[in-house]
Queue: 3 jobs
Job 1
Amino acid sequence: MAHPASPVNLAEKLATFDECWSPRIVAEANGWHFKLVKVLGEFVWHTHPDVDEVFWVISGVLEVRLEERRAVRLSPGDLLVVPRGMSHQPYAHEECHIALLEPAGVPNTGDTGGPRTAADVWA
Amino acid sequence: MAHPASPVNLAEKLATFDECWSPRIVAEANGWHFKLVKVLGEFVWHTHPDVDEVFWVISGVLEVRLEERRAVRLSPGDLLVVPRGMSHQPYAHEECHIALLEPAGVPNTGDTGGPRTAADVWA
């Protein structure tokens, strides 16, 4: 972790890893984690029963498929809150970089689990 | 408030107001508020005794003066966590647009209060 009150540059942190679907924590505040994720292709459908999840697109285009057979398409500068309990599947046709903002300890695969569940890793 | 799981475009929200030092809430998740703020000149020195505050620069340059006679300079794509209890004073030489991420209900002037304290307003 950085010295308290040291700036974190998101582009520099994104340059430290290549793996997709492998979130890296870049900051912590009030028990929340700020994570960067590289996204390509589709993730597993999952639900976070107890937490709202915030997606913030930094570069590229992110599609978030939602229950009710609808999907939203997010461009850089777009933010989306997926409310707790709403099943969703992130997808990107081309590599996309996003920030995820959520309480610490939330698994990326929610209640689906499985091999794509990532450990907490700091960038 | 928008329909649940509707995208929020930050540039569009920023275009809805001109006032500086007048935060607008654009999203809520898990009891946190995501606010946009236009910044010009200097704000009051203040401290949030119980919450960490997250600054995320969208455009322009933000200086955050901190106790210990130091300051950090943030450019677009930089994020800064000011830990609870650390006195700070945001400043911008030219207009700067930032996102503030913090638990709902945190006053912008912290424990300093006074006439620059802003009400909760949604964009």
Note: The CA atoms of residues 27 and 77 of chain B lie 19 Å apart.
Job 2
Amino acid sequence: MAILVVGSVAYDTVETTRERRERQLGGSASFFAVAARGRGPVRCVGVVGDDFRESDLGLIRSSGARTDGIVRRPGASFHWSGRYHADMIERDTLATELGVFADFQPEIPRDWLDSEYLFLANIHPTLQAQVLDLVTGPRLVALDTMNLWIETTRPQLLEVLARVDVLLVNDGEARMLTGERSLARAAAAIAAMGPGRVIIKKGEHGALFFGRDSVLAVPAIILDDVVDPTGAGDSFAGGFMGSLAEAGATRGDGDAVFRRAMIDGTVTASFCPEGFSVEGLMGVTDESYARRKAVLEGMMIP
Amino acid sequence: MAILVVGSVAYDTVETTRERRERQLGGSASFFAVAARGRGPVRCVGVVGDDFRESDLGLIRSSGARTDGIVRRPGASFHWSGRYHADMIERDTLATELGVFADFQPEIPRDWLDSEYLFLANIHPTLQAQVLDLVTGPRLVALDTMNLWIETTRPQLLEVLARVDVLLVNDGEARMLTGERSLARAAAAIAAMGPGRVIIKKGEHGALFFGRDSVLAVPAIILDDVVDPTGAGDSFAGGFMGSLAEAGATRGDGDAVFRRAMIDGTVTASFCPEGFSVEGLMGVTDESYARRKAVLEGMMIP
């Protein structure tokens, strides 16, 4: 069953202590699509400028995703530039040039409107709501957001939250959104806003799943070497939604299928920081995936 | 089988945003002993001043531990004073008055020298080595340390590390000790220093166990309310060592018994922040323990 993702398709300039990469493929929809590895399949909706290389759209397609919903507009593509600290966790944003993304209006190809799964990546909550107005009854809707929207567009965010099934946020955002220090209380407060399931991402410390009647803590797989962590959160979402689509999950299901999807999200996300841009994700094979899944399960089962 | 713990027995003055408690029972040996809940049983070695209340030694004994090895010296007891930030994680140390602890020389009652398990809490590594010289072949030795000793007494610390089976440190200390950013690499580097097993404590993010041929990530149990997190690390150690002693574990065993002990350490530690001083630990019953263990397992098993 198909997964529709609406988000950014961008260029990232990333600097680490070891290397600097200029204008490499980035953006939430790109990472999500490549991470989902053709499960679904994935249909991407976004916007790029006339500077966007056709070969980068080709990179997304090579994962099995469709890019017909990525429109090209005159102007520059969304460009984010950042520098990671030596810990490869903290980072400074050096520039955010929205370009054509500033006027992004999601246009969904007519035959994609019945996509069964919808991932609303981190964009303005009003745009997220517009997408929800267009689609025709998806089985499951997940939404990502960020501190910017929590701070500047809270009413719109709350409105769209009431209409989704799963919220993915990091721990700081969960606390900011709810004013609760305890993540258990924050998750309960978010559930009261609408999303029956809440995923709290904690980067190198893994992720927490707060379900209907269970909680799951999934550790991050411990990597020997981190090359570029950009996009790991969206990669998690891609693995998570891909898993749910493959299983044919619906919002009415019990927690079990979501707990399994947490594992797939975590395994998937672990490949992302091992390369720049989507390189780490592109190298995943069924074998390397299964091997890493076994490592994760070994880390979890007492 | 008996557990010998050598560490501090102290008074803590703790300030949180809600409350301030003056000179409440603290110290690594105190938390460890109460946390172990009579498993072992636990034999405490430490020093207190003439200001130390007999009733506080009674608190330790009420958990089933023996306090014959806690000697009383003229002068003030070790006193630590700190203030927690609103997040209940960050804290500022306001005062550290060593008192009689400055001249602490561990004196071990003769009939305790054959204790099967030894926990060397966070004290000067030369004192830790002295204890190791005295005891007669324990089945298992675990050691805790801190940034102060890593920075100021590195050669002595490395010497004692070569003689222990399990090291417990937090993530920052593991990185400082080894110079490795990756915790996988840090754990491997520590194992090469001597301890075949390494536990990396991450506070609210749980703990990692690096065993002979396996890794286990145990999440922290998510608490609704944190009253005073002081002593949670030593409580973890108490639950961990208590579990190993109850199982009769030896250093030659496979990882399985240590993985189970990680669960017991985590369950035990979760009670500590729910009250000031050892209050949270004192309230533990077999029922509340079993309930919380079931919660933790539910959080871990995919």
Note: The radius of gyration of chain A is 18 Å.
Job 3
Amino acid sequence: MDQKERERLEKIVAQNEYMKYLGLELLDVDLGYARARIPYSHKLLNPYGYLHGGVLFSLADIVAGLAACTYGGNSVTIDGSMNYARPAMNTKDIICEAREVRQGKHVAVYRVEILNDERLLLDTGTFTFFMM
Amino acid sequence: MDQKERERLEKIVAQNEYMKYLGLELLDVDLGYARARIPYSHKLLNPYGYLHGGVLFSLADIVAGLAACTYGGNSVTIDGSMNYARPAMNTKDIICEAREVRQGKHVAVYRVEILNDERLLLDTGTFTFFMM
Amino acid sequence: MDQKERERLEKIVAQNEYMKYLGLELLDVDLGYARARIPYSHKLLNPYGYLHGGVLFSLADIVAGLAACTYGGNSVTIDGSMNYARPAMNTKDIICEAREVRQGKHVAVYRVEILNDERLLLDTGTFTFFMM
Amino acid sequence: MDQKERERLEKIVAQNEYMKYLGLELLDVDLGYARARIPYSHKLLNPYGYLHGGVLFSLADIVAGLAACTYGGNSVTIDGSMNYARPAMNTKDIICEAREVRQGKHVAVYRVEILNDERLLLDTGTFTFFMM
């Protein structure tokens, strides 16, 4: 993928205040693909002491949205859904990977997986974007 | 609804660090119902300058989860989905309302609506909880 | 809403073989709205003896898709989700209503409710369409 | 997986009238896994001439539900969602595969993929079941 595109995406992450709060670190981007990490951090927990479902959805939405931008253009989320299979706890980091299902001219669909330190699958999600 | 239950839910919101970051204010709870508000705030925006989809999902998940707790017990999100119909911008606050579809013994389903200052419907969502 | 549009939608329902199998009867259409009925019928049941979730999803997809066509144009389903709150049984008919969340130029979002004879809410769903 | 369980699932498919209409053929089941096929058939099309989204959702719901039953017990769909990436046409058959995300005691989550003759990914979905 184009190096300029990669830098554009890295800049988006570096400059956004909410992504900074999440501690989001972009690990890899390629055509139709993105991977990022957030830490297990006290300020991101739900009342039960594991990472908040909204934090995990945010991570997934961001990573899938970045993956959809790897072909150029900007992605606006039309809808997203998350299935929470296992609690996000007892892990140092959380990894999120997004993979293309279909990158259309107007509409893009990406699947995401959220994994813990031991690469155990915690959550799955699917996001639909409008491309501009 | 029971006053002690109400205080329990208010305490959850008051003590959680992520909810504080969101600026979440609980406005009303009743059996099978909850309403809360977050401000349109710089630290919650996406790169386009409107409230981040992950922030809105977090709001919806929290409000629906609180509504599911109004009968007693604790709710754990099984899955959630959001449809983003209109950008959350040009508004001072964002209101989220959650209403019961079904409160089962094990599984609860709630619908949410996200509205701007003028009560325009911005987003809809549905959440499924496991009750413990 | 335009009478010609209405007739166009009625014709779609009358000519489609799968909709005939479902026994789908279009009850009402208006701008951003549609309502239809299917019978509780032996040939539509799941192994437990209530209406199959796939049948109810089909009904919802069709009704929401017709509602999205009331402004003209054709709708193609991008995605859809259903939450099954109560079993569809002990009822003569099942009613499905679809209401507009947003009718955009390219993307339309509709919510659906599925009700039994006594107008009890059985299921809810949300559908996203690409308009052509 | 237990041979008796396998026969129980094959019997469910063989006896259900709606599954017969779909032409559903169970190809494989194993612990946390199921695969089935339906034909591209005139009686399953939408008005545009490709397989109806409701038919594909039905297929996915059935296959995921069967996969969830491979550990024993019965599955009731709590919710399901489908993303339609490519039209289901110009293919003799449609294959659906369901794989376990998590098989809990009460709640099970399965992902599905729908593929055409050339194993091109057409649609993805996720289903949540209550186990009884």
Note: Chain B has a mean pLDDT of 97.
